Amino acid sequence: MLGKDRPHPLQLSAGSAKPAKPDTSYSWLAMYFFLNLTLTIYNKAILSTFKFGFPWTLTGIHTLCSGIGAYIMARMGYFTPAQLGEQENMVMLMFSFLYTLNIAISNVSLHEVSVAFHQVVRAMTPVFTIAISVAFLSKKYTGMTYLSLVPLLVGVYMATKGDYSFTAMGFFLTVLGTVLAAIKTVVTNRIQVGRLQLHPLDLLLRMSPLAFVQTVIFSWMTGELESMVSWSKTDMSTSLVIALLVNGVIAFFLNYVSFTANKKTSALTMTVAANVKQVLSIVIAVTVFHTTIGFLNGLGIILTLIGGAFYSYVDLREKAKKARPATPANAPILSEKESEELMNIRISTQ
What we know:
The structure is a single chain. By secondary structure, the protein is mainly α. It has one domain (25-224, 258-323). 75% of the residues lie in helices and 0% in strands. The chain has 14 helices and no strands. It is globular, with a radius of gyration of 25 Å. Residues 1-20 and 345-350 have low confidence and may be disordered. InterPro entries: EmrE-like, Sugar_P_trans_dom, TPT_transporter. Residues 29-312 form the Sugar phosphate transporter domain.
């Protein structure tokens, strides 16, 4: 009887020793970094080792493996594909075209401008992402968020400082590709958290086959498909087939992780992450492929990494502010002992 009448101490969830969940936005972002860098190195290794100079074919392998992987996951019951109407299916078609067009414009623009100029313009993707989000989605960003982008953009400029040669058409295509990249990131986020709320694998299942068909069409239009078929008759090997298959599997996991990270974070966070990944690719190129960089490039790499960390800190602080419950201004401030006594009284009266 005494045991029943005695009030039990209040169990607060904040102080409980629950294991940390691995399913967090930053864990998915970390996986995105790892897989993105892995695929970048793997692509360079394939191009250099096997002399496989067919970027559209490589993209087609990525989309095909992504579609097959998503289908297998659906058959295993990992997710249930949503029932979409005619309008939603049209959205998927337009999204897949945007996905493929973004790759096409980026590849074409690289033939008209230098790599350094291409990277600097692509570094402006967060700026376009903010502009699109503010103009069309009525989003608001704090002054600290804008400020955190400054060292990031300056750092990418310094890291890629070099030959900034470009043509008028190349300049237009590079800027267009950057705008399309920002739109793609924003649309990806809206499809997953908006009215459709598609599972990342569901989005991949619907988008990949369409993108694969469009990639094959682009490859045929540019003449790459014919060249690849002719090349494969004499230079295709079993080791290359295995390497391309592994490359496609990595691409599937990267697409899945990328979509999930986009859903759990934001479009702006993903564009900032892509910028930091680009600089980390330079670091890896220096260590693995023995690429030489100057003092200004090295300083830019350090500044970009600091800028990325600064943005992450600002983003984490802003999310904490939104998650914190509002406290009435006139609420009395109680001491720890008074709060404990008040909670024990409430429990004992129940």
